[in-house]
Amino acid sequence: MPVKKRRLPEAEDPNHSHKITRISRPQTRVVRPLCSERPFSSKKCVSWFHEYIGADKVFGPDAMERFCEDIGVEPENVVMLVLAWRLEAVNMGFFTKDEWVRGMTSLQCDSKERLQSKLDHLRSELNDSTAFRNIYRYAFDFTRDKHQRSLDMDTAKAMLSLLLSRTWPLFPLFYQFLEQSKYKGLNKDQWFNVLEFSRTIKPDLSNYDEDGAWPVLLDEFVEWKKSWTLC
Which residues are CB-neighbours of 191 under 8 A, at least 6 positions away? Predict the structure, then answer.
């Protein structure tokens, strides 16, 4: 990863979703241009990619900054996470040529103007329960240090804030719990179950089953929340 600090997208408001057993790839939904529009050009799409790469042939953080400026979106905006998901990007802050061409072809975007016209469509993915669930699950591996199996706690808190803060009433307490907990990060099972917990357990915890198959992390959160309420 580059020396400069990676920046995470900023939150927007996704709908509720439900647990799934595996991550699904984004559906390839090619949006055909109107008759009055010129056809999508693969050659133009590739040329657009090459506008951002330097002598090192890498579309990295510096290129990403310029790309975001060109399309009028802050790098921290959640729409950039959705775009990365649609491109099936592997590493945060980087796009490969194959990722770019595949994803932009599915979006039928070969210029900044065409991508700008699709930003509302990309944001709407967060309002689809299935798409949001897959974006949430994708975010774990996308933002994880590839040398680690878990997501470090600072990144986990930032991404949870991005994805759940506006839809989960208990999120402020859960964030506070993570800050004072012994945990240094979240593994994939914990990450996935936090979403399920946020979608199925009532804010007053009245439907929480102590004998359920929740990770110990969430059992401890429930105990902490109850003791916090009694104080």
Answer: 137, 140, 151, 156
Q: Is the pLDDT score of 36 beyond 50?
A: no
Fold match, 1-143 / 148-230: yes
DSSP 3-state assignment of 131?
Answer: helix
Largest Cα separation within the chain, whole Å, is 66
Does this model's pTM top 0.85? My answer is no
Judged against a pLDDT cut of 70, whether residue 13 lies above it is answered with: no
Question: Domain spanning 148-230 has what CATH number?
Answer: 1.10.238.200
Domain covering 1-143 in this structure, CATH number? 1.10.238.10
Buried/exposed code over 143-171 (b: 16+ C-beta within 10 A; e: otherwise):
bbeeeeebbeeebbbbbbbbbbeebbebb
Structure tokens at 70: 């060109």
Six-digit token string for 179: 């800050």
Domain boundaries, the chain: 1-143, 148-230
The per-residue pLDDT for 34 is 45
